[in-house]
Write a structure and sequence with these properties.
Layout: E1 3-7, H1 12-23, E2 27-32, H2 35-49, E3 53-57, H3 63-74, E4 79-82, H4 97-125, E5 128-133, H5 143-162, E6 168-173, E7 177-178, H6 182-185, E8 198-199, H7 201-214, E9 218-219, H8 223-234, H9 237-246
Parallel strand pairs: 1-2, 1-4, 2-3, 4-5, 5-6, 6-9, 7-8
Bound molecules: NADP nicotinamide-adenine-dinucleotide phosphate.
């Protein structure tokens, strides 16, 4: 049985990845901080899909948490989804520095170390995949959140190029707005976001898996977001930065 390790599997996009992967027969390693919630998800996945599910409770904003997941990834997984993450609200100068640094740890350091730990066994076998969840926000300048997600894209694309031809796939996934716990957890107001910009988590995950199979470097599900990012690349940086600042809240 193939095994997938999914971080942030307790809720939202990560939980959707876990369900999708169990449905297609993957055994799972579920990572997040809330162990009880992971246990409940694990029991549901075992009952519904008859797959093996391990629970690994870890806080990826801590050294111990990252090291524990790193160790598990090094034992071998066929697919790793580095998805754990959180948003932030408000301006940089008014933000909590501890929170900013925790964001870099979860979005960057954990992604770097887990990817690095997972790749050697995959390369040895000549197969496997890593999906690092970035964001459409990565294409616009909006705080440490968008900067950390831009790092995820550049890092993933660089590693992808280095393992090219090995049979191992590395992809950055850039979701737009998806209804999860993300916005509420970080206190964002999403009332002004038009309905057509909301993506379904299950369709997002299906699109991501399709793009991984096709060897896409940076997956951007949804036509609206492909257009938005296209514009973001053409327009001057000052314009896109001003527009994203006016958008009020960000993701
Ligand atoms: N929703 C969107 O609109 C959107 C858009 C673009 C990108 N994204 C990205 O998609 C990813 C998933 O977000 P989501 O929308 O699914 O959010 P969510 O519903 O809030 O879920 C976040 C998941 O990450 C886990 N997590 C958070 N901090 C963690 C930590 N320190 N250590 C370990 N696990 C942690 C949470 O579980 P615990 O609390 O139990 O740890 C939860 O399982 C994030 O990387 C986010 O930046 C989301």
């Amino acid at each position: 049985m193939s095994t997938a390790l999914v971080t942030g599997a307790a809720a939202g996009i990560g939980a959707q990845f876990a369900h999708h992967l169990a449905r297609i027969g993957y055994g799972l390693v579920l990572v997040a901080r809330d162990e009880e919630r992971l246990d409940r998800t694990a029991a549901a996945l075992r009952a519904e899909h008859g797959v093996a599910v391990e629970v690994l409770a870890a806080d990826l904003a801590t050294e111990d948490g990252i090291a524990a997941v790193e160790r598990r990834a090094a034992l071998g997984a066929d697919l790793v989804v580095n998805n754990a993450g959180f948003g932030q609200r408000g301006d940089f100068l008014a933000s909590d520095l501890v929170g900013e640094l925790a964001m870099l740890k979860v979005h960057c350091e954990a992604v770097l170390r887990i990817t690095r730990a997972a790749l050697p066994p995959m390369l040895e076998r000549g197969s496997g995949g890593v999906i690092n969840v970035a964001s459409v926000a990565a294409f616009f300048s909006r705080g440490t959140y968008s900067a950390s997600k831009a790092w995820v894209i550049t890092f993933s694309d660089s590693v992808r190029q280095q393992v090219d031809g090995s049979g191992v796939r590395v992809m950055a996934l850039c979701p737009g707005w998806v209804r999860t716990e993300f916005h509420e957890r970080s206190g964002m107001d999403t009332t002004g976001i038009p309905g057509f910009l909301w993506l379904d988590a299950d369709r997002l995950v299906a699109a991501a898996m399709r793009d991984l199979r096709r060897g896409v470097a940076v997956s951007v599900p949804g036509v609206a977001y492909k257009v938005l990012i296209g514009l973001g690349k053409i327009l001057p940086r000052r314009v896109t930065t001003a527009l994203s600042a006016r958008a009020g809240s960000h993701h």
